[in-house]
Amino acid sequence: MNTIRRRRVIAAGTLTALGGLTLSGCAGAFDDTEPGADDASTSIVAALPTDPTSMDPIRSGALVVLSVFFHTFDQLVAITADGSLEPKLAREWTSNDDVTQWDFTLNPGVLASNGEEITAEDVVFSYEAILADPTSENYAYLSSVDSVEALDDQTVRFHLDAPFSAFPRNTSLISIVPADTYQEMGADAFAQDPVGSGPYTFESIQKGVAYDLVRNEDYWGDAPAVESISLQPVSSDESRVNGVLSGSLDVAQVGPTQVGALEDQAQAQVFSELSNGVVFLGVNSTSGVLTDPRIREAIGLAIDKSAIADALLMGLAEPAAAMLAPAVDGYSDEVTDGGYDPERATQLLAEAGYTGEAIAFDYATDGRIPLSSEVAQTIQGYLEEVGISVQMNGADQESHTLKVRNKEFTGIYLNTWAPSTVDGDLPLTDFYEPDGNNNYAQDPRTAELAVEQRGVVGEERQAVFRELLQYSNDNGYFVPLYVPMNNFAADTSLDFVPRADGLFDLSETSFE
What we know:
Layout: E1 3-6, H1 14-17, E2 43-48, H2 63-72, E3 74-75, E4 77-79, E5 85-87, E6 90-95, E7 101-106, H3 120-131, E8 145-152, E9 155-160, H4 167-171, E10 175-176, H5 179-185, H6 187-192, E11 200-206, E12 210-215, E13 228-233, H7 237-246, E14 251-254, H8 256-262, E15 268-274, E16 278-283, H9 293-302, H10 305-312, E17 317-319, H11 342-352, E18 359-364, H12 372-385, E19 390-395, H13 397-405, E20 412-417, H14 425-432, H15 444-452, H16 458-475, E21 478-491, E22 494-495, E23 510-511
Parallel strand pairs: 2-13, 18-19, 18-20
Antiparallel strand pairs: 1-15, 3-10, 4-5, 6-7, 7-9, 8-9, 11-12, 12-13, 14-21, 15-21, 16-20, 16-21, 17-21, 22-23
Helix pairs in contact: 9-11, 14-15, 15-16
């Protein structure tokens, strides 16, 4: 793990020095626990970046809600902080030879918090309910599932419509509900008073304010150290920083521009961990001068990725040579790019006969990529230094995302991809298969390799990833730029391990 922890002394008047930040959305949870009280070590208050849409795990599966569901429900398997897989509700899983059939063996004696036993039938119900609802946010994760059946009380079999070696990772995102309880209550009532088999149960739900959880004293697994968790939506980076400094929050994700302000503070420690995402330039290799692979190569060679990561992003990122981050299954450090070579870029442009035709450069001015405008302007500067003219087209995140989905870019564009499964299959589908939002090249070879990796396992699968990612670089279909870090501010006594996906699973967290 590549974690940077900062604990330094701050002078008096920190809040004033930080610009008089005001708290927003940090109140409401466990109001009888004051910062510094004797029982403070038995409760964690954590900030969610946005408010989840629903507490119904059949309908809801957006990333932010997983920080709640990981505590209150069981999934068949779990993705750990470093991106590896470990057992959860299922104690083991196996596949047939062509990975079109997967069997999961469940732990026995698992009870929901209301006493209902969780068996294979509950798993079948949860998956079939999602498969029956194309509007479910989880539906896409099950696109490979043809059917699911219970072989006995502790064994579930999934039949897939095509080979899929990474299928267990998709199950880490699907929470299991007690079928009888869910059906008796109905979806809407269940979302207001959810029942799961996780290490915590819901104490109260105050939408937009707090999701308060208490330890499940009858939990079937290892009991968590912390008695209660309050997950509170706090949308502002500044408010999350201020919340940790004031003691109203114990841990919160913060933006890269806030890390510097936290470096010398006794009230907080800072964790910076490489994320599971890559920020990259997408390239419409079928448009205008970008049809020439020499010009595409020149774009990559013109950009000093290390300078962007070290200077502009203050060391809170690492240069990327591949379209997968190191934490993601499928990543290989053997994949190479051309590095920073502006002289070679200039030479390639001359060889291609490039005469300064303007290339559209689209980017979002806010949203998913911190400092996106500054990153785009820095890239513009590097490109212009070697003689590449760009037309800058900044837009809000929603408009930019719509253009991604509709494949409306005619030149290059700034984008990012962070797979929720921490596996390369999801981004490769989007980058290289025919229906992928980012696949302008429509190269049959990339589609072939993207499908091939699903039917093989182990080193054979890793070899396919390496071939595909290197082939992509060699053809200039994308320019991987950098892997950003997830940054968290936390109480100085919190023994916290950040996850590569930026989500919370505090079930093994405690105060020192």
